Amino acid sequence: MKKKMLLLIMICSLVFPAFAIPTASAAAAPVVYLDGEKLSFNTNPIIKNGSTLVPMRLIFEKQGAKVSWNNTTKTVTATKGSTTIKYTIGQKKAAVNGSTFTLNTPGEILKGSTLVPLRFVSESLGNSVGWFNKSKTVTISSASMLKAKVTKVTDGDTITVKLNDGTEEKVRFIGVDTPESVHPDADRNTSEGVVVSEYTKKQLLNKTVMLELDAGERDNYGRLLAYVYLNGMMFNAKLAEEGYATQMTYQPNVRWVDLFSALVANARSNDRGLWAYDGENGSSVKGTTGKLVIEKVDYQNEIVTIKNKDSKTINLTGWKLVSVKGNQVYTFPEGYTLAPGKTVYVTSGKNAKAAAGYLKWTTANVHNNDENDPAELYDMNNKLISKY
């Protein structure tokens, strides 16, 4: 029997927030990156009523503004170049060069620290702000950017754009690498690559974006290397956060390397995107049918150890355990369930038995002491859940 192929199913219905930062769990303190630097605050940023509030002085000074503070009126005045921001803590109105703006959430004094709205401060100083809800990450970029329209999506990490002067450029995203979908060597193309390519196309095609360049302008193929922004959000980073890309560093373009490293790690640890379907060496695949893991295959004693690492009981009716090399399939009994945290041992050969916690496959040898014989676990929809 041919080895079953992994069927990748992803829902790509993300809507990018343009201006408001969504409400997050109170337990999750946002992480802030400014031009690639992870900022360290004496008091943790908080999310309140959909806005991220951060300690006042650091967020102003890190963005090049000079700050003065009137302790009597609780008013901050910040100046950078020709821009002057004046704001009284607790008020919903702030002034930028004399013009009045209404804030989504007013600043406040918390445990002796003065907190101000991050987005308002940063955008008033001319910078781009992005919010990544799943990882609770904020990015601020002060870089000069090129405006462009996306005219073609080649694959998940490569697009073609038309700049304002009419020039067309092929753009390769910095910092990330997505699975192949249009490689000349067809064997390198994958179903995952097609999924990610469609995701990028859905989000970017015919959209106006901003391009941030780094130290190295082009790669060996002449493609423009860039961080691509949509409504203030860096799309390169969004691919990493969603689990649709691995990290790939283009030296000397390392401005945001720490951000990509953190987002990829976050996606992987939370089983998002491509990482939800890795299923290798005892890791699990998270899906609608639950999270089961093949923890061990004892080839000599013919015992396969399977554990339920989900938070719910899983009905294994119609599930199958496959010995790939031997072309043998075990189908779990009708109505068989496995409770959270519990383990079942599927046995074969001379040790085959049916008892509490044990299932009998066959008295014949299945694995033949062959450690090169993978074991695969499929759910009732023939979706690969775990592989050892």
TrEMBL record:
It holds the Pfam family Cu_amine_oxidN1. InterPro entries: Cu_amine_oxidase-like_N, Lamin_tail_dom, Lamin_tail_dom_sf, Mao_N_sf, SNase_OB-fold_sf, Staphylococal_nuclease_OB-fold. It comes from the Bacteria. Residues 277-388 form the LTD domain. Keywords: Endonuclease, Hydrolase, Nuclease, Signal. The keyword Signal applies. This is Stalk domain-containing protein.
